[in-house]
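Subject: Sanity check before I submit

Could someone independently write out the structure tokens for this chain? I want to compare against mine line by line before I put it in a report. The sequence has 269 residues.
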Amino acid sequence: MTFDNPANPAGAEGERLQKVMAAAGVASRRVSENLISAGRVTVNDEIVTELGRRVLPTDLVSVDGSAIQLDPSRRYLMLNKPLGIVSSLADEKGRPDLSRYTRNYEERLFNVGRLDAQTSGLLLLTNDGELAHVLSHPSFGVSKTYVAKVQGEVTGRILNQLSSGVDLDDGPIAADKVKVVGRPSGGQSMVEIEIHSGRNRIVRRMMSEVGHPVIELVRRQFGPLHLGSLGLGQIRDLTKVELGQLLTLSRTATDAGAASPSELAEDDE
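---
Independent answer below. Compare away.
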């Protein structure tokens, strides 16, 4: 579906809201009309109840508070990145990169944030630059959850230290949440740590600072997205629910205040 005269939105009449909602996969046109009449749809944060309302590609539409994407050219993918893959679409050193996962897609995709080659787990790929900027920038406070296998038995004192904050070369940092989730044999611990910082290799440096170097590191969650049962090396489109959560997070963060692209984070882990 295309909008009337998308190259000139100021003079375009747009498409009927229920038609746009149906094309976006929200519901059938008839059900979409019912949602509108019930006052469950907003356009640019205003409740809309008239069925004749027309919208443009630049309008922000939400249903029951969950944002929907009007632009069908946007693509959002979740990858469970394996070890040994660098977070680049074309690595200058010829190392295995993300192109092996994106080559079958027509869109020009790029990764949101990074995971270093020795970190596996959830990586988001998209062609939505605005959303990628919001999700990548630490000032927007998008949280990430990691599970780290570390050396030694992590005690309550260490957890308190991580929660209170540790001093690193580039400044203090504290975990948003942290807990021990397992104790493998051989004097090791499995630690789940949630953090919103985008500083370079931050989880590895934090754990090393408290005397428990990371052996293995997996990112299990990125904002509202959970890795779930997605297999290592597998990639899939986000579900409509996941996309709605992600777009809602992005719009909320943007409303709270924009950040300069020059301040984008480096590696997330």
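---
OP: Matches mine. For the report I'm noting this point. Confidence is low (pLDDT under 50) at residues 4-11, 258-266.
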